[in-house]
């Protein structure tokens, strides 16, 4: 049986700014994205029976056409007229609906894996063009690493890797609706926009402390008042020595960036011991080898 196993890595937003609302209802964004070494495992197997089947370790996760991984596989089967089918064995470790692009990165892994498994010969750019039809974060999840994402998230510019650091990610047991967050986001003269260009300059200068000082997420203005436990997690990480503590995406996950690994470990273990139901992870940035600015159409 032909099969391939992929690591579908999560992302965090080191900076997230919303520029405005587009005529199509989407929002124009400017985000500094970073892949981390927290990942789902996606195993793809060719089957004689046509179509897509998914098995997952999470009983509540849909395995039909509403699943992004399903959509990615079906897209390529149909486009290339592949008579065989594909079985997807998805082992989830990335929290679901957490602001970490869990569904998008699974879809990205399926697109990459199908491309290799069926020898489709698609370039990374061609995969990203298909990925955006599934979700705005999918092109970035195919690219991976440190990048500036603009437009709805699909316009990518590769950045130099961030300095070495440790990252603690904590997801509280709350549900956040991305639609609710964007619907209630008010952009006016009082909005505190993060300094994305200055943060990029700090990354280029390999200045971890300044990069962290410039972390900002405009969506916190909506999500934190609705879920104050997010602010509590940020404070715990900062008091534990994090150079930056911020919500990722529309939440509810919070990440802390630590220069000192021991401090990161202490915060990780302290959060694990809390009586509240919190998913906690200790990880680090991930940057793929061989990715250059030219490969993403960037500078």
Helix fraction by DSSP (H/I, runs of at least 4): 25-40%
Q: Tell me the radius of gyration.
A: 19 Å
Number of individual domains? 2
Strand content: 25-35%
The poorly predicted ranges are 293-299
Query: Sheet with the most strands?
Result: 7 strands, mixed
Distance between the termini: 42 Å
| CATH A-level architecture of the largest domain | 2-Layer Sandwich
Count the beta strands: 11
The H-and-E topology, N to C, reads as EEEHEHHHEEEHHHEHHEEHE
Summarize it.
The protein is α+β, with helices and mostly antiparallel strands. It has 10 helices and 11 strands.
Characterise this structure.
This protein has 299 residues and is of the alpha+beta class. The protein has ten helices and eleven strands. It has helices at residues 68-79, 102-117, 124-131, 138-143, 178-183, 196-204, 208-213, 220-226, 229-239, 261-272; strands at residues 3-21, 27-47, 51-56, 85-91, 146-151, 155-158, 166-172, 216-217, 244-247, 254-258, 278-283. Strands 1, 2, 3, 4, 5, 6 and 8 form a seven-stranded mixed beta sheet that branches. It has a four-stranded antiparallel beta sheet with strand order 9-10-7-11, with helices on one face. It is globular and about 55 Å long.
Set down the secondary structure blueprint.
Elements: E1 3-21, E2 27-47, E3 51-56, H1 68-79, E4 85-91, H2 102-117, H3 124-131, H4 138-143, E5 146-151, E6 155-158, E7 166-172, H5 178-183, H6 196-204, H7 208-213, E8 216-217, H8 220-226, H9 229-239, E9 244-247, E10 254-258, H10 261-272, E11 278-283
Parallel strand pairs: 1-8, 3-4
Antiparallel strand pairs: 1-2, 2-4, 2-5, 5-6, 7-10, 7-11, 9-10
Helix pairs in contact: 1-2, 2-3
